[in-house]
Amino acid sequence: xxxxxxxxxxxxxxxxxxxxxxxxxxxxxxxxxxxxxxxxxxxxxxxxxxxxxxxxxxxxxxxxxxxxxxxxxxxxxxxxxxxxxxxxxxxxxxxxxxxxxxxxxxxxxxxxxxxxxxxxxxxxxxxxxxxxxxxxxxxxxxxxxxxxxxxxxxxxxxxxxxxxxxxxxxxxxxxxxxxxxxxxxxxxxxxxxxxxxxxxxxxxxxxxxxxxxxxxxxxxxxxxxxxxxxxxxxxxxxxxxxxxxxxxxxxxxxxxxxxxxxxxxxxxxxxxxxxxxxxxxxxxxxxxxxxxxxxxxxxxxxxxxxxxxxxxxxxxxxxxxxxxxxxxxxxxxxxxxxxxxxxxxxxxxxxxxxxxxxxxxxxxxxxxxxxxxxxxxxxxxxxxxxxxxxxxxxxxxxxxxxxxxxxxxxxxxxxxxxxxxxxxxxxxxxxxxxxxxxxxxxxxxxxx
Length: 448
Known about the structure:
The chain is mainly α. It is built from 15 helices and six strands. The protein has helices at about 1-40, 50-60, 65-70, 85-100, 105-110, 115-145, 160-185, 190-215, 220-245, 280-295, 305-315, 320-340, 345-355, 365-400, 410-445; strands at about 145-150, 150, 245-250, 255-260, 260-265, 265-275. Strands 1-2 form a two-stranded antiparallel sheet.
């Protein structure tokens, strides 16, 4: 027993304990980068009257600005230099992935490996800058047209304000894009997802405090608050279950003679996740939906423009048109991103090369068709799950008029990003433990 404890301590010291220093540095780097991001959301945009903007924002609450403010981590509510957050980068990524699937030249560039990936990333950055310029200029013009009872949102309107706003917001978006890439390379987890995650989590205490305040004032009953809490817990459990759900396709390997020994004949399984696309469809759908809605929100609404007023009215939270469009985009991106991540033809070819086959299915084209059939069926379930979780708050607002916005999309992003980050930390620890065992075996070999 004592020798086993000593061996475990030696392995821990050589592997997990010594190498865990690298994991600590990655965690501290990730935390520091997210703190810098949160500080940036409090740096105000030059030329804005904060009191007037707060009045305007409160008047426009309950619509698209709430969702945009949620993704920006309150940066839009405070009209900071990170008002657009990292959404232009996400929109640019959508455009590049669509173009890659339709353009043979870009598709061949993607297959070139690391060099092709770097070129596509560079094109994505260029698209991000273009989109950020367009959106920030539209934001500047929209701010100039916004007035409250106490005055205009912009202190000194004009071309200088527009140029300074574009430079400031584009610079903030580029900085967040760079910061996300640094988190992915030097930290733990996906940088873009963690930036959105930290912004959502930062708004949870305010939402909880607001709900409790409504309960103290008697606006909502304690049973309603308890029901909301139980519903959140239930949805979190449902999300965890669905994110871990898999369809395991059995793969058989034939027996082969290697020298004088018979090897092979083993069977394994190919795990196909129920939600292969992860949290990407809701983020992509929200990003595309926010682009036109932002233009509508910052333009002719309430200024006698009947067309803009009609679009703003029908695309509010809880409206059938908004829910149909949002759900349709989620389904589209669920299938689209799954097709990008998993290629049945390539997988079937790799199985054939290594002698693997699905029992009862012929190798090659038949295996590819079978995998495509299975993946399509489970993607239907995965897309329905995403639509249900993301549209649940819209249904609650429309049918029950809940006083606070229960964000199904935000909850899905929060839980999924947490699970992914914890899984990456766990993989780092396992890798460090294996490295420690290898070093231990090498030390024993040198002693002999």
